Amino acid sequence: MVSGMDEQLREKRRMPAAFLRSLDLPEPSLSDNRSHERRIRETLASDLKLPVTEIFLPLQIARQLPGLIREHGYRVDLVFCRDRHGYIVSGVFPKGCSPGVFGLAVDLGSTSVVFYLVDLRARRVVETVSRHNPQASHGDDILDRIIFASRGNGLQLMQQETAGLFNEVMADLCGRAGIRQDDIYYCSVAGNTTMCHLLLGLDPWHICREPYLPVVNRFDLISPEEVGLEMNPLGRLYLFPNIGSYFGGDLISGIIASGLHRQEEISLLVDVGTNAEVILGNRDWLVACAGAAGPALEGGILSCGTRAQPGAIERVEIDPTTLDLSWQTIGEIPPVGLCGSGIIDLLAALFLAGLVDSTGKLVVERDPDRFRKIDDVWCYVVADESITGHGRPVYISQSDIKNLIRSKGAMYTILNVVVQSVGVQFSDIQNFYVAGAFGTYISPDKAITIGMLPDISIDRFKGLGNAAGEGAVNMLLDASKMDEANEICDRITYLEMNVRGDFMDQLTGALFLPHTDLSLFPSVAAKLKKLGRFSTP
Amino acid sequence: MVSGMDEQLREKRRMPAAFLRSLDLPEPSLSDNRSHERRIRETLASDLKLPVTEIFLPLQIARQLPGLIREHGYRVDLVFCRDRHGYIVSGVFPKGCSPGVFGLAVDLGSTSVVFYLVDLRARRVVETVSRHNPQASHGDDILDRIIFASRGNGLQLMQQETAGLFNEVMADLCGRAGIRQDDIYYCSVAGNTTMCHLLLGLDPWHICREPYLPVVNRFDLISPEEVGLEMNPLGRLYLFPNIGSYFGGDLISGIIASGLHRQEEISLLVDVGTNAEVILGNRDWLVACAGAAGPALEGGILSCGTRAQPGAIERVEIDPTTLDLSWQTIGEIPPVGLCGSGIIDLLAALFLAGLVDSTGKLVVERDPDRFRKIDDVWCYVVADESITGHGRPVYISQSDIKNLIRSKGAMYTILNVVVQSVGVQFSDIQNFYVAGAFGTYISPDKAITIGMLPDISIDRFKGLGNAAGEGAVNMLLDASKMDEANEICDRITYLEMNVRGDFMDQLTGALFLPHTDLSLFPSVAAKLKKLGRFSTP
User: Which parts of B327-370 fold into alpha helices (H)?
Assistant: First the structure.
């Protein structure tokens, strides 16, 4: 049974980052001639059960009080924002005027930026929009942008472009929702370390140079004007903290979204990309690491790789017996390339069909019609030029496969090193969260087939969707997540993958399909055996 | 014996409001790749023995770190300012660059504004300047200014004029001291409630209307830009708190300067002016009140009253037997009027010489040559037109004397009511502090003679000089005074003089020279007896 008191306490803890409070202030008299400030602060402090010193009443608000009270009396609505210590009064209105109290959660990715407009009174997301990161015009790669930032006014330019995107999207979202930009009191941003630095105009120079130093690990709450954000000027901007150059706030936000740091059972969260970021743990301990997996898994550098967009082949199947090929594109339009999930499907299918051997070599003689030499390299053609959207073939080349195997091998090795570092087994992991757009679309059994993910029960894999964005929304709805984020940073033991010898030792075995040690992948071994192609490399 | 630890602790408590700290940050490595922010915050927190959350590193400072560290390495000088909670890093420099760290203390009077430039590293006042309050052009009287503020952009105008004066004086003082305005990190202001409101642009409308409400009692620390102050933009502006419309921050600052709130013995502090503000107490209890004494004591409304300026008669003596008159002017130039101390001297001398009787009536027949009818009213001429600076006589009229007696009577009655309210006697008061310029120049024995101050031993009277300014300087040198100021506000019991019946009951007896009950003024009775003019009214 939950008592009223418990309910109240829980409610208080879950207070959104900005919230409205209606106050009936006691009327003043000669025996109670406290100032407006004191009357508000003391009434609130007793209401919110806070010391008066935890309530910050900025000058701009104090300036509005005499006129407001003279016209409307002592019944007021106040908007509070969570501040560094306690709360700041960010808005004051006549009672019942009911202004909107909104927040903007942002997943600040280096390619796409996803915005969520959150109604903090109704406690729900009301609008969502995704945009390209405008910094991409200065380089797709993060390293290129760091170099761009170091030249002339490059940093300032990218800062302004990024803030400009925020402002443009806020104007758009506010128009759609029928609210004013001043009704947005809080902005919560989950981004990797470089993205956060660029948004704030912090020079990322040391991020990519040994020993890889961010300027800031834990961002203090920021006033919108310091960054040029056109939201309520007395609101606050929150960025999730990072624990290093390669383990950013997007991951901390993802951990918050998964809740793994509060669970008794052991979970693993992996964000698959050029860098593979991994967090393993439970409510008692947390281990993290990030390591380069190479860009192949995102489709970036492959001959026909593409982002997950209309026309991207996202699913591929090959009948292991007939070798019949089938595929499916996003939007069901003619294909233009292969996105991440399609690539993993394809490699798994090629391997099970015997069209690629365990060393990653294409077996051209097994289906000569499907193979073609392009630029003097053997390729498996998924869709020929007659049926594609751009009139060029969509294929995977021998060197693409080599790249893919290096990436998936690095990925698996990173996971293995992390798991071994704390003396647990893959089988001890109850929840295996895969974050990112990738996590939503990847087929775990295909990823297991190529030896990228460990061979554990399929039902333990959980796509987290946009975990970073979800964590940012969660923070707006429950500001105690800020404390949780700091606690997570305090608790994490970070393994520097680049300086670990065991990584290189273990990598070699992982550069096969699925692995030199097939006993690590019993389900794959079973499939191969069933197909009559059980072979040791 | 004082141990090193005690000394250290005391030192820490006495930290100035802004101070410099040199840090040798640990060099980063792969095994210590904390961000610049973390490195600074953690080094400092351990250095200052503070939690890391008490150190606020604003974005503007974080933006400077990468360039600074790249060029000058990990040895830095940081300037800290006391903030709402903990400290804000307001400046960062290469080590040994030794920037100046200055503060500006301001006694914001309604007539004069006194500025003190304080070197916070050397811990001393380096420059002082006094200026007229520019608001005076909108009215000498505070009430006039409150009315002016309520019209059109009157409030905004006075805010800008006041801040403008601050900026003009800062430019002047910095020029003289050879420093930059950015070297001023803290500004501490002691002013009455209305002055503080006008400086901040807070509408004083409710201050002068029952039930007399300020907008703010306790000002949060303010960023210079919010008020338009041209000092270091990451510095802070502090205003002493008030406990009501008629008991302002100037008095709280004065209490701090006197130290009476920390003494075991009972002290009384009075600020003599149009309003008499009184504080009585010791380290265990504090009682305060403010009451209207009328403007006569400041010389304001008297026929020949003037501010304490060159040409003002500040000392007057009349030989009680020969009736010979002598006086002294400020600057020893021809007289132009009578300032506060001169007026009190004059009334006391006239009374002892029998030229004014105990009811306040001029005794014209006793020295007919000195008396003259001006505007149909009898006047005692202190200096005739042939010797004054402006070619008009300097005199005191019968109606001036009536005004003076009303003011001095109100003053005495206020003191009496306060003392009685806590059940002590005037004789229990060990230190009787008289604040304001008035307090420095007034002769306590003359003030006793006219029954304005109680008849206690002369050596217990202590002129405090500019107590408000001194308190503001003290605060810059020892920021723990901010906490003391708040504690004082919490501890004070405020007596609302306007609503007390005993005030009016007691006032009647005090409207005589020195009082109807001569036993309250034994030293005056003795003087009169000696002069052979002992008389009961």
Answer: 340-352
Please check whether residues A73 and A90 belong to one and the same domain.
yes
Which domain range does residue A531 map to?
264-537
B373 and B514 together in one domain: yes
CA distance linking residue A357 with residue A347, whole number of Å: 11
Q: Is A34 on the interface with B (CB under 8 A)?
A: yes
Listed in order, strand segments (DSSP E) in A69-163 are 75-82, 87-94, 102-108, 112-119, 124-132
Domain assignment present for A257:
no
B170: in domain: yes
Burial A360-397 (b: 16+ CB within 10 A, else e): bebbbeebeebbbeeeeebbbbbbeeeebeeeebbbbb
Same domain, B161 and B79: no
Q: By CA distance, what is B221's nearest residue in A? A: A58
- Cα separation, A352 vs A224, whole angstroms: 54
Q: Enumerate the H helices of A288-397 as residue ranges.
A: 340-352
Among B181, B205, B239, the domain boundary falls at B239
One domain for residues B121 and B140: yes
Q: Could you tell me the CATH number of the domain that includes residue B82? A: 3.10.20.880
User: What does the angle CA B30 – CA B33 – CA B38 come to, to the nearest 5 degrees?
Assistant: 165
Residue B328 sits in the same domain as residue B184: no
Contact B67/A203, CB-based, under 8 Å?
A: yes
**Total structural domains within chain A:** 3
Partner A contacted by B227 (CB < 8 A):
yes
Q: Is residue A256 part of a domain?
A: no
DSSP string, A35-87: -HHHHHHHHHHHHHT--GGGEE--HHHHHHHHHHHHHHTTEEEEEEEE-SSSE
* Contacts (Cβ under 8 Å, ≥6 apart) of B322: none
Residue A350 pLDDT: 97
Token pair for B91: 């400046």
Confidence tier at A386 by pLDDT (50, 70, 90): very high
- CATH number where B174 lies: 3.30.420.480
Whole-number pLDDT of residue B5: 47
3-state secondary structure of B108: strand
Domain co-membership, A154 together with A199: yes
Residue A244 lies in a domain: no
The 3-state DSSP class for residue B104 equals strand
Strand-pair category, B55-56 with B102-108? unpaired
A2 touches chain B (CB under 8 A): no
3-class secondary structure, A124: strand
Q: What is the pLDDT of residue B348?
A: 96
CB contact, 8 Å: A382 with chain B?
no
In chain A, what residues touch B57 (CB-CB under 8 Å)? 216, 220
Q: Which residues contact A146 (CB under 8 A, 6 or more apart)?
A: A194, A204, A205, A207, A208
Q: Which of A213, A218, A239, A497 to mutate to test the interface with B (most CBs of B within 10 A)?
A: A213
> Over chain B (537 residues), what is each successive 10-residue block's mean pLDDT?
47 82 93 94 90 94 94 94 95 89 96 96 96 94 93 97 98 97 98 97 93 96 98 98 94 96 96 85 94 70 87 95 95 94 94 95 95 95 95 95 92 93 95 80 92 96 90 97 96 80 87 94 94 67
Residue B223, exposed/middle/buried by CB under 10 A (0-12, 13-18, 19+)? Answer: middle
In 3D space, the residue among A406, A425, A349 whose CA is nearest the CA of residue A382 turns out to be: A349
- Which residue, B24, B17, B54, B29, is CA-closest to B40? B24
Per-residue pLDDT at B291: 83
How many Cβ atoms are within 10 Å of B100's Cβ, its own excluded?
20
Mean pLDDT along residues A397-407: 93
Per-residue model confidence (pLDDT) at position A292 = 79
pLDDT > 90 in chain A, percent: 81
Q: How far apart are CA A105 and CA A115, in angstroms?
A: 6
Closest CA to B453 of B255, B317, B293: B293
